[in-house]
Write a structure and sequence with these properties.
By secondary structure, the chain is an alpha/beta fold. Helix content is about 30%, strand content about 20%. It folds into 2 domains: about 250 residues, TIM Barrel (Alpha-Beta Barrel), CATH 3.20.20; about 130 residues, Lyase, Ornithine Decarboxylase, Chain A, domain 1 (Beta Barrel), CATH 2.40.37.10. The protein binds pyridoxal-5'-phosphate. The site of pyridoxal-5'-phosphate has 17 residues, from helix 10.
Length: about 425
């Protein structure tokens, strides 16, 4: 009996493969919208709340437009992400630019869009002033408290080793410089732990940022306009894990808000989030077909996707649950390494995974691949990027990114006469 639900049946998946061969990503519009609404509800106590979706998690215009309709902005950290946001209709302060090690030209572009610029490093302050010939009216500084980030004595992450953000002293000095330089609206931002499966992450982070906001008020005479809790709220990749309860998380932040900001006369601060994984991961799956079996010292099931389509298992040893479509009710009686075709031994979607007996042609639904999935793809071994599809609310399926073709793959080699001739004569 499979422990995780899919949003597609075997019959539906087979029908889709008649138009779009495997492998492909399939996203679930209904799930994306419902989740975005729950997040909004969780923070509805804060009138200025806004989620800035981290574009890097799922950079697809159709996804961005859905989130835009649900009231989200975008969080970008590169020129291409800013451009995609602009193309999808995001304007001005609907865009957050949270980058680091930033090329100056990207600051200029972000400013032209009217995006909120979030500075990662103290040296960026003068750099920005010189680049833009002055400061924008609104600016945000990224905080790194150092030390270990702990929740109930559990170390969640290690900010002192993270390349991001400024020390508290740098933040306070930075705000004095910004104020003297004419900045009118100020924010702070911090991202301290990734994929947290704990309702305590945001409230604990919020306590640190709210306390800093009080210091900023006392030391610099600045009332912050917004506090950006950034990303890091995780999802339950494993079926036995208890997922985050976003309503409890919102309530937890609310309590700390009243306790610290409310008591210090700062109860008009807007709360922003910059979630990626939480917004999309459960609502995207990689669909792939079993094409091969191999028996040596282990049982291998070969599929037509590979780590170039979804690298998280190969790189982080990340668990992605696998459902065999049409065999949801069967027991996991067999044990397989589910592998792709890269010439790399880490190209395994699962190791010693209990699954129902597989047959050639079975379709696998690799769960929770909707964020940091397609986006982290690559072309190693000449593997082409696969298509992305969207299951719409009416049940129909829409192609939202076509699969890459050999012509795409060879496009930057059209300066090579042999390749050019080959592409033309083979109508690639
Ligand atoms: C990656 C990233 C996010 C999103 O992180 P998730 O873990 O996907 O929620 C948000 N903000 C910044 C600056 C990031 O780099």
């Amino acid at each position: 009996m499979d422990m995780k639900e899919t949003y597609i049946t075997k019959e539906e998946a087979e029908r889709i493969t008649e138009s779009y061969p495997t492998p492909f990503y399939l996203y679930d519009e209904e799930g994306i919208r419902e989740n975005a609404r729950r997040l909004k509800q969780a923070f509805s106590w804060n009138p200025g709340f806004r989620e800035y979706f981290a574009v890097k998690a799922t950079p697809n215009p159709e996804i961005l437009r859905i989130l835009r309709e649900e009231g989200c902005g975008t969080d970008c950290s590169s020129l291409a992400e800013l451009e995609m946001s602009e193309a999808c209709g995001f304007r001005g302060q609907e865009i957050m630019f949270s980058s680091n090690d930033t090329p100056l030209s990207e600051y200029r572009f972000a400013e032209k869009l009217g995006a909120i610029i979030n500075l990662d490093d103290f040296s960026n302050i003068e750099e920005l002033r010189e680049t833009l010939g002055g400061f924008p009216e609104t600016l945000c500084l990224r905080y790194n408290p150092g030390g270990y980030f702990k929740i109930a004595n559990t170390i969640m992450d290690n900010p002192q080793d993270a390349k991001f953000g400024m020390t508290e002293e740098q933040i306070l000095e930075g705000f004095r410089i910004l104020k003297a330089g004419g900045v009118k609206h100020f924010g702070i931002h911090a991202f301290l732990a990734s994929n947290t499966v704990s309702n305590e992450y945001y409230p604990t982070l919020a306590r640190q940022l709210f306390t800093l906001a009080v210091r900023v008020k006392e030391d610099c005479g600045i009332r912050l306009s917004f506090i950006n809790l950034s990303g890091g709220v995780g999802i339950a990749y494993r079926p036995e894990e208890k997922p985050n309860d976003i309503l409890a998380i919102g309530e937890g932040v609310h309590r700390v808000y009243d306790e610290i900001l409310g008591k210090n006369g700062l109860s008009d601060v807007r709360i922003f989030t910059e979630l990626g994984r939480f917004m999309l991961a459960p609502y995207g799956a990689l669909i792939t077909r079993v094409i091969h079996f191999k028996e040596t010292y282990k049982h291998y099931a070969g599929v037509d996707a590979c780590a170039a389509n979804l690298m998280r298992p190969a790189v982080y040893g990340a668990y992605h649950h696998i459902t065999v479509l049409g065999k949801e009710k069967e027991e996991g009686t067999e044990s397989y390494d589910v592998v792709g075709s890269l010439c790399e031994n880490n190209d395994k979607f699962a190791v010693d995974r209990r699954l129902p007996r597989l047959e050639k042609g079975d379709l696998l639904f690799i769960h929770d691949a909707g964020a940091h999935g397609f986006a982290m793809g690559y072309n190693y071994n000449g593997k082409l990027w696969c298509a992305e599809l969207l299951k719409k609310r009416d049940g129909s399926v829409k192609l939202i990114r076509r699969a890459e073709t050999p012509r795409d793959y060879f496009a930057t080699l059209d300066i090579d006469p042999d390749m050019k001739r080959y592409m033309d004569s083979h109508s690639l």
